[in-house]
Design a protein that fits this description.
about 75% helix; about 260 residues; disordered C terminus; mainly alpha; Growth Hormone, Chain: A
């Protein structure tokens, strides 16, 4: 029933998207957010085959070290959120004697604080170096995963609540600085490149979901999966700080293409 409910909600979104969403502010007869009517010049619309543009954007980005650093780091982001905690937190808590509904409630709280953390991260991205933010986010996440095996028990206690709040704030906080770096480095192709980086996020999530399950079956515990995720967060932090912020190609050249 839970799956059917989610499917129904997803289908209900289809007519809303069809009626409300547009590709450009000009489609609604309005200016882009923050634009000055006296000086605004409408940007050229993208033309050509969308799949071809996506592949050409990937081909351009794949030649740079920054793309691979961002993609691998974001794959680790997916592994340590959707793949590990999103899939395996409830069964791991159940292994420690916690009721399934209680564990599910804690995971729901993660979602609530995720909203707050993402909004705050967007503001911080406008103020601080996105790379430094990513290092901090992955570091906090890694510390949380190291401590999680000790925090899990058959009941909810303050230290577990603290973990849930911090992990929730950190859950999607990586998205604004990652998207900002894609835009800064790859210019007009930044949104396309971010799409590929996000694809890496999903691949990382899938790999972690499978890997953690195998670890649980082999060792009878999730402990090594949590610690492995923490180690990966360390790798992601290092990859984030080595990203070069200068554009991969001149913006004029990207626009011309």
């Amino acid at each position: 029933m839970a799956s059917l409910l989610i499917a129904a909600v997803a289908l209900a979104a289809v007519p809303i998207v069809a009626v409300v969403l547009r590709d450009d502010p000009a489609d609604r007869g309005v200016l882009p957010y923050g634009a000055d009517a006296a000086t605004h010049t409408p940007r050229a619309r993208a033309t050509g085959n969308a799949a071809r543009r996506a592949l050409s954007g990937l081909a351009q980005a794949a030649k740079t070290r920054s793309f691979w650093a961002l993609a691998i780091a974001f794959a680790i982001c997916g592994a340590t959120t959707n793949g590990l905690v999103g899939i395996h937190f409830i069964p791991s808590a159940h292994d420690h004697g916690m009721a399934t509904t209680t564990a599910a409630g804690l995971l729901a709280v993660v979602g609530v604080f995720d909203i707050l953390g993402t909004v705050a991260s967007g503001w911080l991205t406008d103020v601080f170096d996105p790379r430094v933010l990513l290092v901090a986010y992955y570091a906090f996440r890694g510390v949380g995963l190291v401590m999680l095996p000790v925090l899990l028990s058959d009941a909810v206690h303050p230290s577990m609540v603290l973990f849930i709040v911090i992990y929730g704030l950190d859950w999607v906080a990586t998205v604004p600085p990652t998207a900002a770096l894609c835009r800064e480095i790859f210019g007009e192709n930044g949104t396309i490149v971010f799409g590929w980086v996000f694809a890496a996020h999903q691949i990382g999530a899938a790999a972690a979901a499978l890997g953690a399950g195998v670890i649980r079956d082999v060792f009878g515990t999730y402990t090594y999966a949590w610690w492995g995720g923490a180690a990966l967060c360390g790798v992601a932090a290092v990859l984030s700080i080595v990203v070069r912020r200068r554009p991969a190609v001149p913006v004029e050249a990207v626009t011309a293409r």
